[in-house]
Specification:
The chain is α+β, with helices and mostly antiparallel strands. It has a 7-stranded antiparallel sheet. A two-stranded antiparallel sheet has the order 2-3. It has a two-stranded antiparallel sheet with strand order 7-8. Strand 7 and strand 8 form a beta hairpin. This is ATP--guanido phosphotransferase. It comes from Leptospira dzoumogneensis. Keywords: ATP-binding, Kinase, Nucleotide-binding, Transferase. GO terms for molecular function: ATP binding; kinase activity.
């Protein structure tokens, strides 16, 4: 693997992100951090904020990084599905049946499995609930994506994907919020960490913050950042400080 590839792989954050002490509403954040983890996420969900969360993970069979479809890779993909004992729902009949043939996009474990796109396997999950996202990220079936002996993997780099920015742990977490929240000043004084990225969806009027290569040990950084954003919006909307159970 050449230097031109490896230099673009995102470096995993050395520690979990938390808002610096000079950020707005830091006292509110500290109170939130003292609550039970799942109760705190449930509290944020109860406000039904216009936030959408997305998790994605991508993998390739060994020695087949780029998506040139062959009989060998098709056999691997079918084998992967059979090993997970997954089922997909026939949208026409409403009945469930085992997956026997390779499909481009199929419902799988509450999310969507995309086959043969930029990478051979990509699973994504979209939700408006932090509590649901937290539960999904702890699911046993995601451990199947950690099999170094089955996927294209190289020590010192991690899982190899078609684009180097998607390599390493091969995962990505993002939050989509209305762009008006930033434009109106409701997120004033907030600064996105330098190892995160963002883009605007002009037609949808949305702003997307994302970070790649979290890995199993840094996903709390994502929850911390989006929870802090949610607290800023909640405190501004209510005109008062958010209240938490003692």
């Amino acid at each position: 693997m050449g230097e031109e590839y490896t230099k673009f792989i995102p470096i995993q954050a050395p520690s979990e992100w938390e808002p610096p002490s000079h950020f707005t509403a830091i006292g509110l954040w500290e109170k939130f951090r003292k609550t039970n983890w799942e109760e705190g996420l449930s509290y944020l969900d109860s406000h039904r904020l216009p936030f959408t969360y997305r998790f994605r993970i991508a993998r390739n069979p060994k020695h087949s990084t780029y998506t040139k479809r062959t009989e060998k890779t098709d056999q691997f993909l079918n084998s992967f599905l059979e090993e997970t004992d997954s089922q997909t729902e026939d949208l026409n009949s409403g009945k469930k049946h085992p997956i026997l043939e390779l499909k481009q996009r199929i419902p799988w474990n509450s999310g969507t499995l995309v086959m043969g796109d930029e990478d051979h396997i990509r699973w994504e999950y979209v939700t408006d609930s932090l509590l649901e996202l937290n539960s999904v990220l702890k699911s046993d079936f995601l451990k199947k994506f950690e099999a170094e002996d089955k996927f294209d993997f190289q020590k010192g780099i991690g899982f190899i994907n078609s684009c180097p920015t998607n390599s390493g742990f091969g995962d990505k977490l993002s939050v989509s919020i209305p762009a008006r929240l930033a434009d109106s000043g409701e997120l004033r004084d907030f600064r996105l960490p330098t190892d995160w990225g963002f883009y605007r969806e002009e037609l949808k009027g949305r702003l997307v913050f994302f970070r790649k290569n979290f890995g199993p040990n840094r996903k709390n950084s994502f929850f911390n950042l989006v929870s802090y954003l949610a607290l800023l919006v909640i405190s501004g909307k209510d005109g008062t400080k958010a209240s938490f159970a003692p």
